[in-house]
């Protein structure tokens, strides 16, 4: 009788092990982490958190990055490399036209553009090109700002007496020349 009880218990144990093995869920698949992610024409580090990684795009600062994360429903602490293709596409859409997603116009970097009068948010190379065209417009109109840009002088009213002094440092050169001339004179006197 004892041996049959042991066999029954062994069989029950085996059945329990099989059930446990069947019930064990498979380990969740790790999301594919990309080291470099291309967003709006800029290569970004995929290991950084989303909020700080977005600041690597020219034209997006910390405030705009936070607003983009909130609008898109992204976790700002999740890494950029963990986003899938659909999330990246949504992220790019928000960056290209944030006003369409409900971002207020005061947060955009190009409000009431002179040519079209629209509120835009420029990023990357578009921002550089727009800035160059704006400066060139001032230069062509020969405004005060344009002339200061053309001469390479400060534009916003800074003092120029002690700052923005380009070229060689005259005072130091004069002193070093005087010292060198005095040394040369003393050496000539020693030779005589």
Structure description:
The protein is mainly alpha-helical. It has a domain at 36-107: Orthogonal Bundle (Helicase, Ruva Protein, domain 3), CATH 1.10.8.50. Helix content is 50%, strand content 4%. The chain has a two-stranded antiparallel sheet. β1 and β2 form a beta hairpin. It is elongated and about 125 Å long. It starts with a helix and ends with a helix. The mean pLDDT is 83.
Task: List its traits.
192 residues, mainly alpha, Helicase, Ruva Protein, domain 3, two-stranded antiparallel sheet, 7 helices
What's the SSE blueprint?
Layout (H helix, E strand, L loop, with lengths): L1 H22 L12 E4 L2 E4 L4 H4 L8 H11 L12 H12 L28 H17 L2 H8 L18 H22 L1
Antiparallel strand pairs: 1-2
User: β content, as a range?
Assistant: under 5%
Unreliably modeled segments? none
**CATH topology of the domain at 36-107, which one?**
Helicase, Ruva Protein, domain 3
What about the largest sheet?
2 strands, antiparallel
> What is the H-and-E element order?
HEEHHHHHH
Rounded to an integer, what's the Rg over CA atoms? 34 Å
Quickly give the CATH architecture of the domain at 36-107.
Orthogonal Bundle
Number of strand segments: 2
Strand order of the largest sheet: 1-2
Total count of helical runs of at least 4 residues: 7
Condensed summary:
With 192 residues, this protein is mainly alpha-helical. It has 7 helices and 2 strands, in the order αββαααααα.
